[in-house]
Specification:
The chain has 16 helices and 23 strands. It is of the alpha+beta class. The protein has five domains: 178 residues, no CATH class; 65 residues, no CATH class; 122 residues, no CATH class; 78 residues; 49 residues, no CATH class. Helix 6 crosses helix 7 and helix 11 crosses helix 13. The protein starts with a helix and ends in a 12-residue tail after the last helix.
Length: 555
Amino acid sequence: MRSYNWWQRRLTREFFGPDQNGHPLLFFVDDEKTAQLHGDAKATDSIDDLCAAVAQEALDWHSHAYEPIRQEYFTWKRSTREDPPPCLPLLAVCVLAATRMRGEGGRGAHHYYARLADLLPPPSWSHQTNHGKYLQRDYGTVRDLWTYLHKWLEEREGARGVSTLRTSRGQKLIGYARSQALICAADRQRLTPFFEGCTIRDETALLQGLRMWKNRSRLSARLRAALDKGDLDDFLGPLLAALATSDDRPPPVPTGLRRLPLRITATDDPRDGWTLRWRAERLVGVGGDVLTHPGGRLSVTAEGEGSLYTLSGDLPEIGQSLTSGLVARGEHLEVSLSSQKEPIILQEDPLGGWTEVEKAALHLPSLLLFDAPGEKKARDLLTEAGLTWEDPEESSVDGWFVAADVEFTEGAGTVVRRPRLMGGLRLQCAGERRHYLIGGEPDLVVPVGIGDVRLDGKSILCDGERTELRGRGLTAGRHVINSESGQLTFHLHAPQQRSVLKSLAPPRADSEHSPLKRATAIDAEGHHTNLATAEPPAWWHVRRTGLSGTASVDR
């Protein structure tokens, strides 16, 4: 089965891609279109796949059917909002239900919800006895999702399609889906000569003119039937007016530029802490470019077979870009970043480190990146996730901080409070954070209200306080913390002893400096402080200590 996120990406590419710049949106999804979108299955299997992804992954079958998707929208709203809100698979099923309201099925609201219930059966574990009524009861949320999509299109000023989303009096809930179920993309092309020859843009005049149009027979059977019966004029009239108006607009000047997905990535360096860098995924067909921005010229190069561009030249200053935004343009690529008003969510990246995401996936290690003005929103976000606020860590960018060890566990507003590990002397092990040196064990932070907490099966007293795990005689290996809210694991490693071997290198010259080139002090919290180096004192050479590899004894 294709996942809900797969369908979201596929629908975005089909209906809301950059190639829709200046074109009216027609979010028409029927059986044939669904099979085309799927690509690897016949129509019925494709529909089953889409509907199963929505019903099993995105709906709540306990209290409010569409609430998880609404919560995903609010998470998306805190992102850059470059792509449409994460409700497209659900809205596609709603349009699909509207396309099936014909024949004996009837055209009233009752028949629409019956078709929707056919498409979205409850999972086997659900106890819903009348799931059609259940889906209908919360359908006001779906209407809100349509308005969110309309608003996003308006904000983009037609760059991802001109909104034709309309509803009508008497059917304000299901009107959006029904309006998109009337005119397919082929009809849109066939109507262009009609709009060119019709100077009046009034809804009634457009309907009358289309009914008398000489080329009407070229329209789809669905649209011709709607014109013949006239019972859908409340939907069809506003839709025709929107299409006609979009034809009147001067087409946007094509920039020819593709948007470079420039994102923040963070790495947890054992010595230097959280280091922020830029990361850019490669785009098919673009081997490189040079983008001009206020700070200079950024070179973007595709090297080898990797999935990321190599960035060089005058890289934009990260702190300034996050605070004030960034605009950069080249011959083929452009970057347009808004100033960050919300905390940035980063999640573990298969390519290493943590990378900025538009919406947080559940049950993945995450970070929050924020500046001082955004701390309150970061605190609120962690509170919503059921996490306790701890002092954030500094990043490599002045004024920006990282809240680590964050995991989003619920998407529907239910808070699950989980213990966290803080501090400790971490080791770099395949990008994972929960590996520590023996003697540098982390502290355990348990939210107030969690009762029995066990470390490797033994109860420990926490009482809502930060509890030290050092000094408990823990050995190397895997350790497990269990509580009523879940399980937390970490690993301890014994220090590696350097082998003492006779030097195979030639003896050092007497004038050579001390072999101690760099020194670092490490405290129990894992913080590193580089110690300044200086020239060795005169007695180092006079006394010949032997530390340079050429020991000698004065006679």
